[in-house]
Structures are given as structure tokens and as C-alpha cells.
Design brief:
The chain has 738 residues and is α/β, with parallel strands linked by helices. The chain has 32 helices and twelve strands. It has a seven-stranded parallel sheet with strand order 3-2-1-4-5-6-7, covered by helices on one side. Pfam families: Glyco_transf_41, TPR_16, TPR_8. Belongs to the glycosyltransferase 41 family. O-GlcNAc transferase subfamily. InterPro entries: Glycosyltr_41/O-GlcNAc_trsf, OGT/SEC/SPY_C, TPR-like_helical_dom_sf, TPR_rpt. Pathway: Protein modification; protein glycosylation.
Length: 738
């Protein structure tokens, strides 16, 4: 009897027998026909199904000895290797299976899984895509949809979610993912409809409400955003990330106390929420977690103060918290997550000397944020200067310091490198800077890797144009990455950080006692504070009609709302009392609800006069300039005054009233007036401020004379290089000392 005849007789028995009996029968036949590849394959599959992996692999090897291109046996060996976590062998065998049979869908799928487990995600998804070319499968469309979202490859993600919906049109998860992708594609209305459809299918889907909250925030609908976030945690009170999102939205809109309560609830539910996502989630809250929460809440300073008492309480709470942390169990495991969006930025708006508080905070954090790094030896013949910021784009910081950076790069003895923090949004300004400097590098999103990137450049000097606006740069500044490190006045207050050696300021903006305001050594440069390029005269709307009633006086205070200190209310009240035709206009801060806090504060501090204080929407540059040009007078705030806005006002020949404070951040108006040789808008006291402002609005002839003086003199504050030249000399002296 032939081999094939014997196998046909045995087939019914093999289909019905216990696996051990089938194994015995196949073994007997193999003794008779040891070179029968089919029998070895049948035996291998039987053993594999019953997890006798070593023997199964031996039979697959026998098949491949006889038939080297037998794809099912290569697949079988790959499957066994994958099951035993031998990923390298699995990859090798499964690739051989695919080479032998390119349309072997199961082999492609398992090969993708092996590569995924090896961390080769890009290759893995290429093989899953190949699977889908052979046959559509829901599981793979779901997987690829999520993968391409993570890569921000929205068109591919969209294609897969549409296939997902075609297969499962009533899947709420699919509609949620569809909404997320449309949101990322800036298609707000279709995204909103997709989220609403998900809720129709699954009304209790809390994460969808969170996504509606994100969408509403992006569209400037803050009331709707807060309502959506609140609904998410109402539906799922244990939803820790929902509480975190709610907290962030509350804080952005000035609801600080509620935000602190919400973040406490989030971390109560999931103490590891602000640490690395891969860390195991613990439900137990340690002393260390409580300490971190206390610091986070203390640093969540109100963005706008309801009253002076709230300001003093917030400052006292931060001071008390820092004192308590000195004697408690504290640890920072993941700085970027735990300090996400958090710095000491808002402390500068309280109008007090921040040296002690910032130094105490920085010295405390220095223990946890300052790894010991060996510096590379700088080259002896050139001065290598690095600058780190998230603002090297169309941003006020670059408007101030872009000219200085380009001037440094033109010096033959200098080499200037720019390091872009991860939150940077490169644009045409970035490209222009890239052309003018010797190098531009995007920093890794990992703090550790970013430190190494900078360290390996062997810099002589590392400069931060500002510290506090971006939490990544702020955390980076705690490391010694160059022999000398300095900060510019992009955020004009002391950093307090021990590894920052020099604060570069300007003599016209500092009092003789100013060193008392800084933990760094204070370097005061002469001349106009920055080499500011005159703003272009962009085309404006032909009509300057702002819809204002005739006969009114337009007082414009175009400063961010953080700068409206409670002390400023008395000046506003004095102006409105003395000028019955006065209307004061401020600008809302983007789409937030911060102005509502000021509205309530003004109701208390101004009484009926508050009806003449108006909040304009955040607006494009052209509309903003129309308001600026039509203002009778611009009001500079104290104790933190204007920066870029003052340059724009003076360029448009609009009189500005300013009362210089004790600190550099409140002396910009004085510095610019001095540079022009003028002083008509500089007040000596708050009472003097009121008188000057009212006179400028009421006495049209004097107002015109002041505007003519500005027209004659404002060129003196633009394109000035004296300050930059002095900095270059200081740097060359440093180079000479090398």
C-alpha cells in the first residue's frame, strides 16, 4: 500500500481521536515514511496545538530540511518563538514565511506583533497595513487608527476610522476617535457632531465629554468647556484625568481655589497621575504625594486677583509651603509631568521683591533638579554661545531680542546656537533666525536628553532669553550646562536659580539698589533696553470708526490682565471721577473668562463707575492697532508695566502715562521716555498719574503737542544698538579671559 493510501485510511481516525492517540498514529507512520514532509508538518501542528513546543519545533525543522520554502512551517516556528518570547527568532522565521508567501496574512500579522514587542513600531505598522491590503479587519483598523493619531498622521488615521465606522456604524468608541481626528484637523463643527453621535450611542461616555471640553476650549467657548468637563466627572466621579482637565480649565479662567480642589481630587484618585504614564497606578497616597500636591497648589498663584487680600494670602501660602517642605518627605520622580505647565511665572505680578521667595523655591528644587554633569571643554579660539527658549518665533521675546541675537551671530569671534524647547511653534521668524545664526537645534522632549544635547555642544555661555514662561526651559535652567549661564529680561524678574550666574538688564531700568532684587549678578547695559525693530506699517482697515459715541474720551489700557494689580484700581477710579467723558477699555485675555474676575472686582472698588470700564475681545493685530491709534491716551500698568505694547504705542505717536515702580518690570515706560528725552507722561505718584492722564484726554492741544514730540523723537527707541554693542564688549572680555 502506498504512503498516500495509508494516509487516506488514517484521516478519519486522526480527526476523531484524542490528540495523544493521533500523535501515536502519526509517529508510527513517520517511522515508515521518515522523509514525508507532510507527516512532519501534521505532527508539528498537533504538538503545537497541545503546547508541546520543543517537539513541534523539531518537526517544523524536519519539514524545512525537506522543503526550505515551506511558508506554513516558517510561520509555525515563528509562532512558537513568539509564544516563548524569543522575539529575534520569531522575527527571522516570520520574515522567511512572508518571503516564501507574500500574501500569507497570518504571518504578516504575527510578524507585526513581534516587531511591536521589540519596539520597532514603524515596521510593525507597515506589516499590519500589508495585512489590510489582503483583507479588511476591524481589529487592525482600530489599531492603525490609534497608531496614526499618536504619530499625528491625521489623513491615515482618518482613513482607518472611516473603515472602522463602515464596519461598526453604531460603535461609540469609533465616533469618539472620529471626533478626535476631526478636531486635530481643525474641523470643529464636524468634530462636535461626531462627539454628539458618540453620546447618543453611549450617554454615559465620560471621556467624550472631556473631548467636548477640549474642543470648546480651542474654540474659545470657556463656559461650555467648563460645563463639559464638569459633566465628565459627574458621570464618572473616579475619572482622575477628568478632574485634572477640569482643574486646568478652572485655573486658566482664574478660578484658582476651585482648580486647587479639583487637582487634589485628581491626585487623591490617582497619586501617580502626574508622573510617568508607564508607572504602575497606585491607589495609595504617600507623604511624598501630599508634599508635591502642596507645592503644586502653592505655585498655582491666581492669574488675576479678586482683591489685595487674596494676593497677600497667596504669597503667604507659598512662603509657608516652602518652609514646611524643608522638613517633610519630598521627592521629584518625573519633573516634566509633575511640573507640567507650572513655574513661578505669576509671582512677578504681585508687585513685590521676589528675590527671597524665588531663591527659596529654587534652592529647594535644586536638590532634585540639578544632576551632576561633566562639562565638555570649550574651544579656545571662539566664544560659543547657546540660547534656549520656546519663543524663537513670532513672539514678544523674539521681538525684543531677535536683533541682539543676530548681532551676536555676526561677530567673527562668536558662534551662536539656538536650542528650541519642545513647546516651540516654529514659523517664518524661526527660519529667519536659523539663516542668521551658526546653528539651530530642536531639543528632545526628554529633559535628560535635552541636557545632553546642550552639554555636548561644549558651550562657553548659555543664555535664557526668559525664565518662567515655559516650564521645560525653567526646569532645564537648574542644570549646569555651560561654565557661565545668564538670563535676559524676557520675563523681568530674578530666577532665584543658583546655576544662573548673571541677569542681563539695562541701566535706564534699574535703581542703584537693584542688585537687592536679584539672586544673580546684575549686569546693567547702557542705552535703550533692546534693539527693537520698528513695527511695520501694515495695511489697516480704511475706516477707523470703532462705533464709539462722539464726545467721549478713550482711555486704553492694552496690557494683559495679569498686570492689572489691585493697586491700579484707585487710579482707574480717580480718572473716571475727574473725567465724566472718560471710558476705559481693556482687552480680554484670549478667550478666557479672566475679565469676569476683574468685572466683579471693579464692581466693588469702583461702584457705579465700573459701568464705564469695558472689555474688548482679544483681536487681530490690525484691529488692535485701530484701537491704539484712536486712543486719546494709553495707560501703562504698575507694578508690572508694558513691553512690546509701549513700543507700538510710541511708534503710533500715542501718549502713554506711566508711573515707574521700584522694579525693572515696572520701569519700561520711564526708560523709553528717557531715551527720547521726554518726560510728559512720567508720573511721580499715583495722584500725578491721574492728573496727567486726564489732562492728555481733555486738553486736545497739549495732546497734539505730545504726539508731535513723539513723532520727532520716537526713532530714538528703534533699531538702537548701544545696548547690544555693550553686551558684545562684555562677551569679548569674557573670551579674552579664556
Amino acid at each position: 500500500m502506498s504512503y498516500h493510501a495509508e494516509l487516506r485510511i488514517l484521516e478519519p481516525f486522526l480527526r476523531q481521536a484524542e490528540w495523544s492517540q493521533a500523535q501515536v498514529a502519526l509517529a508510527q507512520l513517520l517511522k515508515k515514511y521518515p522523509e514525508a514532509a507532510e507527516l512532519h508538518y501534521r505532527m508539528a501542528v498537533l504538538l503545537q496545538e497541545n503546547q508541546v513546543d520543543a517537539q513541534a519545533d523539531a518537526h517544523y525543522l524536519q519539514v524545512l530540511r525537506l522543503l526550505p520554502q515551506h511558508a506554513p512551517s516558517w510561520f509555525g516556528r515563528g509562532f512558537l518563538a513568539l509564544r516563548s518570547d524569543n522575539l529575534d527568532l520569531a522575527e527571522t522565521c516570520l520574515k522567511r514565511a512572508v518571503q516564501a508567501q507574500p500574501d500569507f496574512r497570518q504571518a504578516l500579522d504575527y510578524l507585526a506583533q513581534a516587531l511591536w514587542l521589540k519596539g520597532q513600531e514603524t515596521d510593525a505598522f507597515l506589516y499590519w497595513e500589508a495585512c489590510l491590503q489582503i483583507q479588511s479587519e476591524l481589529r487592525l483598523h482600530q489599531k492603525l487608527c490609534l497608531h496614526y493619531q499618536a504619530l499625528k498622521r491625521w489623513s491615515e488615521a482618518l482613513a482607518h476610522v472611516q473603515e472602522w465606522l463602515a464596519l461598526c456604524p453604531n460603535d461609540a468608541n469609533a465616533w469618539n476617535e472620529y471626533g478626535l481626528i476631526l478636531r486635530s484637523l481643525k474641523q470643529a463643527e464636524p468634530a462636535h457632531r461626531a462627539f454628539e453621535r458618540a453620546l447618543e450611542l453611549e450617554p454615559g461616555f465620560a471621556q467624550v465629554y472631556t473631548n467636548l471640553g477640549h474642543l470648546a476650549r480651542e474654540c474659545g467657548q470657556m463656559t461650555a468647556a467648563l460645563a463639559a468637563y464638569c459633566q465628565a466627572i459627574t458621570l464618572q466621579p473616579t475619572y482622575a484625568e477628568g478632574w485634572l482637565n477640569y482643574s486646568q480649565c478652572l485655573y486658566d479662567n482664574g478660578l484658582t481655589a476651585q482648580a486647587q480642589t479639583a487637582i487634589a481630587q485628581a491626585l487623591q484618585l490617582q497619586p501617580a497621575l502626574l508622573r510617568k504614564r508607564k508607572e504602575a497606578i497606585s491607589s495609595k497616597r504617600s507623604d511624598r504625594d501630599s508634599s508635591m500636591l502642596s507645592l503644586r497648589q502653592a505655585l498655582q498663584l491666581p492669574r488675576v486677583y479678586a482683591c489685595q487680600e487674596e494676593l497677600l494670602e497667596a504669597r503667604a501660602r507659598l512662603s509657608f509651603t516652602l518652609a514646611q517642605l524643608q522638613i517633610t518627605n519630598f521627592e521629584i520622580q518625573d519633573p516634566l509631568c509633575e511640573f507640567s505647565g507650572l513655574t513661578n511665572f505669576y509671582l512677578a505680578y504681585q508687585g513685590q521683591n521676589d528675590r527671597e521667595l524665588n531663591s527659596t523655591l529654587a534652592q529647594f528644587l535644586q536638590r532634585y533638579l540639578s544632576p551632576q554633569l561633566a562639562l565638555c571643554e570649550p574651544a579656545p579660539d571662539k566664544l560659543k554661545i547657546g540660547l534656549v527658549s520656546a519663543c524663537f518665533q513670532d513672539h514678544s521675546v523674539t521681538h525684543c531680542f531677535g536683533g541682539m541675537i543676530q548681532a551676536l551671530a555676526q561677530e567673527p569671534d562668536f558662534e551662536v546656537l539656538l536650542f528650541l524647547a519642545p513647546s516651540s511653534k516654529p514659523d517664518q521668524v524661526t527660519e529667519l533666525l536659523k539663516e542668521r545664526v551658526q546653528g539651530l537645534e530642536h531639543l528632545s522632549a526628554s529633559l535628560e536628553h535635552a541636557r545632553l544635547q546642550i552639554q555636548q555642544q561644549a558651550l562657553d555661555l548659555l543664555i535664557y532669553p526668559e525664565l518662567g514662561m515655559d516650564h521645560f526651559s525653567w526646569l532645564l535652567a537648574f542644570s549646569r550646562l555651560a561654565p557661565h549661564q545668564a538670563v535676559l529680561s524676557g520675563h523681568p524678574t530674578t530666577s532665584g536659580i543658583p546655576t544662573i550666574d548673571t541677569f542681563i538688564s539695562h541701566a535706564d531700568l534699574e535703581l542703584p539698589s537693584a542688585q537687592n532684587h536679584y539672586s544673580e549678578n546684575l549686569l546693567c547695559l547702557p542705552g535703550v533696553p533692546v534693539n527693537y525693530t520698528r513695527p511695520p506699517r501694515r495695511s489697516l482697515n480704511a475706516s477707523s470708526d470703532l462705533g464709539l459715541p462722539s464726545g467721549r474720551h478713550l482711555y486704553l489700557c492694552p496690557m494683559t490682565l495679569f498686570k492689572i494689580h489691585p493697586d491700579f484700581d484707585a487710579v482707574i477710579k480717580g480718572i473716571l471721577e475727574r473725567d465724566p467723558q472718560a471710558d476705559l477699555y481693556l482687552f480680554k485675555f484670549h478667550q478666557t473668562l479672566l475679565h469676569q474676575i476683574l468685572e466683579r472686582r471693579f464692581q466693588r472698588s469702583l461702584g457705579n463707575l465700573a459701568a464705564r470700564v469695558h472689555f474688548l475681545p482679544w483681536m487681530p493685530w490690525g484691529q488692535f492697532m485701530l484701537w491704539l491709534e484712536n486712543a486719546d491716551v494709553v495707560l501703562d500698568t504698575f507694578h508690572f508695566g508694558g513691553g512690546n505694547t509701549l513700543y507700538m504705542a510710541f511708534e503710533r505717536e500715542v501718549p502713554v502715562v506711566t508711573w515707574p515702580s521700584e522694579f525693572q518690570r515696572g520701569r519700561g515706560g520711564l526708560g523709553l521716555y528717557q531715551a527720547m528725552g521726554l518726560d510728559f507722561g512720567v508720573a511721580q505718584t499715583p495722584e500725578d498719574y491721574i492728573q496727567i492722564a486726564v489732562r492728555l484726554a481733555q486738553e486736545k492741544d497739549w495732546n497734539r503737542q505730545c504726539r508731535l514730540l513723539l513723532r520727532e523723537r520716537n526713532a530714538l527707541i528703534f533699531g538702537q544698538t548701544r545696548s547690544t554693542e555693550a553686551l558684545i564688549l562684555w562677551l569679548k572680555a569674557y573670551l579674552y579671559q579664556k
